[in-house]
Amino acid sequence: MSVITTTRVRPADYGTLDHLLYTAQNVYREPPDEHERLGWLVDAVEHHIAGSPLYARLAAARQFDAMRLRETGDLSQVPLVSSGLFKRVAVATDTSGQVRLCTSSGTMGAKSVVARDDRTLERFVGSILNGMRQFFGESELRKGFVFGPDPEEAGDLWFAYAISLAEMFNGGEHFVVDGEFRVAEALEALVSAPADVQPVIITPPSLLMELFEWMQGRGEIVAFAHPEPLVITAGGWKRDATEAVDRAELERLGGELLGIGPGCFRDLYNMVELNTLVLECAHATKHVPPWLHVDARRTSDLQPLESGEMGLLAFLDPTPLSYPGFILSEDLGSVSRRCCACGITGEVLSLERRLKGIEERGCGLKMSRYGQGVTDQ
Length: 377
Ligand SMILES: [Zn+2]
Prior knowledge:
Helix content is 32%, strand content 20%. It is α/β, with parallel strands linked by helices. The N terminus and C terminus are likely disordered. The longest helix has 19 residues.
């Protein structure tokens, strides 16, 4: 995969959703306009019914009625696609453009394959930039240090590709080369970062832990020239089939060995089927972006649960055009409305750590294998 093209013509159907993604400021601080979001979701459902025979069949089986959804606003009516379906069949909506087939790693099962056309990828990037403006501020000079491969080596592997987009931080350096984590080079680059550039480490938890263990083994403690280095973790919190990475321990070691403050660790949530990043504020709260609807579903009948109740997470994402973004995930979590210490009042996502899943989703695990020089299966 190549990185997103730099110049583009504004599409004729650039609408209010694109405006919110690309241009609007402080979108998390305003309460979401639920009427507007409902409109985007109904439009998206109609688009996917028209362009995807598979989704049309799902909708027909559910006796889905777009008019009724518009009237009632009952989002539990939106037909969901289980994330497992992307492993078995092509779930795509015809947009008559070129698509990239983005894959999960599939270390313990078949790979999910998600078709993204240019506008769908651009909207994903829009969601990253939008969240960065909100949670990291806009003005500062930053540099990304990616414990992952560059976009070319990442290929179609979605997780590696998504974190390789750190090039947006005024250029990024990548420290997984030929499937191997170059830990000494990474540390050398980090300590050499100039004081006026904010370093942003983007990493699966497993490789950050590997760096810390490597430093401990050599008795190394270093300090950044910049006072507020950031760490963005992404992917699963597993090192291998049995061992988990503990976030509190990771933050403790980050403070001890690299002088990184606790508010500077941000975990982000994404999966290959979701076209939006869910980012954390400095208070470790995952704020749901205003264009996305998330709820937890009861496992027995998939009915939406009350605020704070734990269930299977369902995402209604109006941003993808080349596949239906109405995903029943395999992840457990809850959604609640909360007034966060960062000043944002709105829906927040809490995840049950993905440790005991029926099937390891694979992305974090695949990345941890880079550390051991194991190639993809
Ligand atoms: Zn917050």
